[in-house]
Fold:
Amino acid sequence: MSYREKDTENEILEAAKKVFIEKGMAGARMQEIADEAGINKSLLHYYYRSKDKLFLAVFRFAVLQFLPGIQEMLTSNIPFDEKIRRFVYRYIDILLENPFVPMFIIQEIQRDPERLFNAFLEVGMRPAQIIQQFREASEKGEIKDINPEDILVNTLSLCIFPFAAQPLMQRLFCENDEQVYKEWLENRKKTVPEFIINAVKK
Amino acid sequence: MSYREKDTENEILEAAKKVFIEKGMAGARMQEIADEAGINKSLLHYYYRSKDKLFLAVFRFAVLQFLPGIQEMLTSNIPFDEKIRRFVYRYIDILLENPFVPMFIIQEIQRDPERLFNAFLEVGMRPAQIIQQFREASEKGEIKDINPEDILVNTLSLCIFPFAAQPLMQRLFCENDEQVYKEWLENRKKTVPEFIINAVKK
DNA sequence: GTCTATATTGTGATAGAC
DNA sequence: GTCTATCACAATATAGAC
Structure:
């Protein structure tokens, strides 16, 4: 098969995503990635040369995956309420599929801020534009006079944190029943936007 | 000096707190803890036998440190608004002194849920009581008909997440000026309670 | 109790056969 | 491209002198 090489390379990347995103750079083991990919350890080096380079490929992917949702928030020209509803709905949807990605990014940025923040910019992140959107909503009188930074961070907090805290909260409130917790998270796609809108509307 | 032994044991624990809480179990190095404590590596084993046991001592401390604030929330019999204001103010205050502790707990619980959750219960955590308090506030008509679990998790999200995301947000919004970010966090002691109260009041 | 030296294991990386 | 075997070094842990 002429695409056999591509297949292996991709299986390695998929395995690396799973292990790195769940355990972080320090906690991940090359052996575990190889097992997950169903291949030998040395093939990892054949394709990616080092643990560090493989990690960076995963990190770039993780950042890329979570940018589109945020970018959509700033480009659309719909009213504030609707913007929040759409963003939260879509963002929690992505999170249900990839629960660990945002915390992985945050955790690893803390470990090596200089280098990893560059990967963040490389990929086209323009934070000032997002803030500007909220500022305009405030000036248009759609919402209260609240720091646009607060609205953005509060929104991200309410979306992301419940996923980060899942292992703990699930035990505390759901008798460790994953299905029950997932349904509660699903339900937040509707309750969180209303929570935010009530908090900031005039 | 008759308390010399106690001193060393305590200096080790302090050093271990600093390193483990910032880097996690997988990222921490016994050598770094020894350096931080200004002593030799083997003394760590003399006092705590293994990395695992030293880690567990730190984890127990971290959980204990963040329980009192949460417990206060459920014992006081003041009105809902005032309860939220006091809790958020105190909680962000503790976080300003210990920015990494909650994420440390969340991250490590995920790594080893069975064992570490026990440390959580050992220390007297009673989550059902907190939920009950919010349910009563709702029944008394103080607030909207919102899941008490949502109120608790939303409150924790708004307090904790901005600290977890600090290395990222500081770069995105504050040109990496730590002082500016700290002042913004300080300011949230007032804005976050109002955000929550507006969101849930009738 | 504290140190130096050393054992032991884990882990990323390379060499070389096929 | 893929495997087995092995290296080199890092990290936890222990032995033993003082």
